[in-house]
Amino acid sequence: xxxxxxxxxxxxxxxxxxxxxxxxxxxxxxxxxxxxxxxxxxxxxxxxxxxxxxxxxxxxxxxxxxxxxxxxxxxxxxxxxxxxxxxxxxxxxxxxxxxxxxxxxxxxxxxxxxxxxxxxxxxxxxxxxxxxxxxxxxxxxxxxxxxxxxxxxxxxxxxxxxxxxxxxxxxxxxxxxxxxxxxxxxxxxxxxxxxxxxxxxxxxxxxxxxxxxxxxxxxxxxxxxxxxxxxxxxxxxxxxxxxxxxxxxxxxxxxxxxxxxxxxxxxxxxxxxxxxxxxxxxxxxxxxxxxxxxxxxxxxxxxxxxxxxxxxxxxxxxxxxxxxxxxxxxxxxxxxxxxxxxxxxxxxx
Amino acid sequence: xxxxxxxxxxxxxxxxxxxxxxxxxxxxxxxxxxxxxxxxxxxxxxxxxxxxxxxxxxxxxxxxxxxxxxxxxxxxxxxxxxxxxxxxxxxxxxxxxxxxxxxxxxxxxxxxxxxxxxxxxxxxxxxxxxxxxxxxxxxxxxxxxxxxxxxxxxxxxxxxxxxxxxxxxxxxxxxxxxxxxxxxxxxxxxxxxxxxxxxxxxxxxxxxxxxxxxxxxxxxxxxxxxxxxxxxxxxxxxxxxxxxxxxxxx
Amino acid sequence: xxxxxxxxxxxxxxxxxxxxxxxxxxxxxxxxxxxxxxxxxxxxxxxxxxxxxxxxxxxxxxxxxxxxxxxxxxxxxxxxxxxxxxxxxxxxxxxxxxxxxxxxxxxxxxxxxxxxxxxxxxxxxxxxxxxxxxxxxxxxxxxxxxxxxxxxxxxxxxxxxxxxxxxxxxxxxxxxxxxxxxxxxxxxxxxxxxxxxxxxxxxxxxxxxxxxxxxxxxxxxxxxxxxxxxxxxxxxxxxxxxxxxxxxxxxxxxxxxxxxxxxxxxxxxxxxxxxxxxxxxxxxxxxxxx
Lengths: 349, 250, 290
Fold this sequence. Notes:
The structure holds 3 protein chains of 3 kinds.
Chain A: H1 19-38, H2 41-64, H3 74-88, H4 97-119, H5 124-144, E1 154-155, H6 175-197, H7 200-210, H8 212-218, H9 222-248, E2 250-251, H10 258-271, H11 278-296, H12 300-314, H13 318-327
Antiparallel strand pairs in A: 1-2
Chain B: E1 4-15, E2 18-29, E3 33-37, H1 44-52, E4 59-64, E5 67-68, H2 74-79, E6 82-85, H3 97-108, H4 123-136, H5 151-164, E7 169-173, H6 181-194, E8 199-203, H7 207-213, E9 216-221, E10 224-229, H8 231-236, H9 238-244
Parallel strand pairs in B: 3-8, 3-9, 6-7, 7-8
Antiparallel strand pairs in B: 1-2, 1-4, 4-5, 9-10
Helix pairs in contact in B: 3-4, 3-5, 4-5, 5-6
Chain C: H1 3-34, H2 41-59, H3 62-83, H4 93-115, E1 131-133, E2 139-141, H5 142-164, H6 166-176, H7 178-183, H8 188-210, H9 220-235, H10 240-260, H11 265-279
Antiparallel strand pairs in C: 1-2
């Protein structure tokens, strides 16, 4: 009968990481802060890109890993915020970050609220299909109409301005300044997500993931919990999309497309759904891997597809599983996979 | 006589052509354990599902105290003071024992969904969880992940979770299912203590436990009530003997 | 809009709906019976179209392309089920989504290597070319009518097999209760393989059939995938009859949408889906009680 000390812990939702991981984290943060002084601009920009995709994935994980819902439309919130920036930036002048960021994030949050309110009435496989379809709806909205340049997309010629009146603390046109702002935003988001996840709200959400019936019978308003998580998640994805659009200086319908949503899911699984920062690690791994692949072969998508297939079969626990396989097993609770109802809920043919 | 905490009248449930439950009426009083027994397929599980709100009744009414709850969802009935354990253990497997019970206590506290304070900060909730664990005797396993508990311990945990919500009405669905004798004894003792200040409805197959615990007994067969009353009366009822012919006896 | 034009558009909508049904029925069968969500379904539709183009180009015959395309897809389906899909039964949906996404990337690249990014067209069989003259200015392509007839025949065949035959009964039983069916000793694994292969073949058939009237282009799989998902969600997962209803609704909405508000025709399909879901969260013919 299991009862060894190794199985005892205080916090299941966000377990205290081992000393090794804590040490590594400090190291990584130090490198991240020092990066612009250590590496050429190309890597700083790459790091910015990785941070933003990582943020979108961490936002998604609130819903997937902690909420147990597989959402296939998160790219839509990401892209929507980007488009809001594009639409509110004057042709050749910068827009004010203080005005456009809240607007963009607010729009993304509203979209998440609307889509979530409808989609969360469904369960399991329906939820996946419905979110997929809604994501596509937004994709087509921008692809087929002339809002934001249709299928060609739109350019953002100037990065947003952080000026307040005549006080200009930073110039976002400079890659290093942009990087630090993004690093700060991501850091704040991580703190926010951690606080959420360890709160009564977060625990109730995870409980509903583990056993929806029991959570309901205890009196938790499961629909409301999930809708709130979905909305917050959409808003954070919007933050990432806003800065991504600012970085590329360009928005296109693909930013809303389901391929990106699926990629975010891959990153979430790769990085491990257990912790808050797992997906960030996943983003580093996947995007780094892609960079290497792209320089090696023209058919990198094929390799990437094969890797994803292998990932599904060999490493359902993502990189954390790989790490524990390499570093030695620890007596932990089994890796979390969203506890979706079994496929048997489908109706007759 | 103690007041009636839960009353069901004329409950029926139809699944397509099948009548799982027909015209069942019963009530449960505070301070008593009302047991429901019957052969397999009698409709006991359906009955308990109707009472807890897991299933909606085709007809009939259910009331908690004076308040009609027939149309209320499980969540609302939970908030109205009804707690239930499930036949198939339904705990939160990835949380620790303590966290499981704390979640139950949290569900009933004033602000169950606060977003920015750490869970460990609410001392009142923590205290309720601790005392529930004490009552069922699991306090030394508090930090173990729930999925690693033995079957018997998981049942104890379920009861602790029900207790932590401080319910007026407790519905127990075959709490002794699949238990060895020693484990069963612990649970039986535990259930006996539950009725203080609460109304307990117990659905069970284990006859020894039923006759030890029940203050009143209702027997079901084929979806209907065939006898109801004090255990000794019911025991002697001819229809009951017929229904149980061939089974391990009363 | 006069009656004749309306009639023509109605026919177009029905024809489109029928092809959608063909593809979506494969998806709903695979999901309803195997419990597997197959995102790569659209990729097989595209593959069917490309195979049709390629086989027709080298043999000069549309019929060989039809039979060959379906045959190859069926075999591919059997193989895929055996290698990959089988390992996914009982795994959570996230794993299935990721697997199919990986498959899409792979299939897409293979198509790119084999056929390039070009857009192609396929000629319909000789005796189905040409049009029926309706008025002085309006004519309706014979091939489109042929598609309607063909799809109706296939649909009838599907319904017949599912409702009236033993294999259909096994398939329906499996959808209701997989474990029980297995316990009864029915060789469920074999049935699964056939169901998946049939599902894939139906998608490919849709692609082959539509190739002569639409262009064969790289993005066609994605588009069809989302549409078939909408159809399946609308109709209720696992319900072939539901897929028929959903497909018809979508076909008509899309066709008339393109006529009346072209920029919003795609958008309106999703709006329709949203409204239906508000009314029936499990689809029109899906399960009522959760």
